[in-house]
Amino acid sequence: MKISRTKKRLSNNVWYLPISVLAAVGLMFYLSSVLRAISMAGRYGLIEAEIPVVQVPIQDLGFKHFAEQGSETLSADTPLVLLTRDAFFFGSVGAFAQDLTNVRNKFYIPHADGAPQLNRLAKDMERWLQEKAEETGKVRPRTVLFLPTEEIPMPIVIQCISGLRSSRLFDKVVVGGGLI
After folding, report:
1. What is the value of pTM for the model shown?
2. What values do phi and psi take at 118, rounded to 5?
3. Distance between CA atoms of 160 and 121, rounded to whole angstroms?
4. Residue 177 and residue 104: Cα distance in Å, rounded?
5. Distance from first CA to last CA of the chain, Å, rounded?
6. What are phi and psi of 136, to 5 degrees?
7. Residue 21: partners with Cβ closer than 8 Å, 6 or more residues away
């Protein structure tokens, strides 16, 4: 009499490993996207710049008495620097928004051999801000709105933001886009 040495298989376990790997990958993808969404800040990049958002207070559903406040308010008197392929343009936000056709309230600094003249921009803006503060009697604004056009490469944008910050004229550089 011959005894069979093979055992009878009750089930085939071929799918356990691929299902567990697929579930682990899906869980890691979900957790990484959730952690990325949670950890995104309002300040980005190699240099400190801010992206403007509309101030809308958050409802305090937990009754923790939390009130959100904006860090800065942009007005018509806020300085604006527009960077195009050919030149810098600067003036107040009101000069670019409400009184666009008037050429006497905007200033033009052409690029030298295709490179932005950051030192000249800083000197001219300092003179303009000083004259404007003396004329209106208001304190000089410490925030500037910087608008690069879409064809400007990112290294040039970063260089210009860094130049505006290192000029000591402004504490905050707010980056805007899509307006021009």
Report:
1. 0.63
2. -70, -35
3. 10
4. 24
5. 93
6. -90, -20
7. none
pLDDT number for residue 110: 92
At 33, the amino acid letter reads S
What are the tens digits of pLDDT across the range 34-83?
A: 888 777 765 555 566 666 665 666 666 666 666 666 667 778 888 999 99
Burial of 147 (0-12, 13-18, 19+ CB in 10 A): buried
Distance CA 97, CA 54 (A): 18
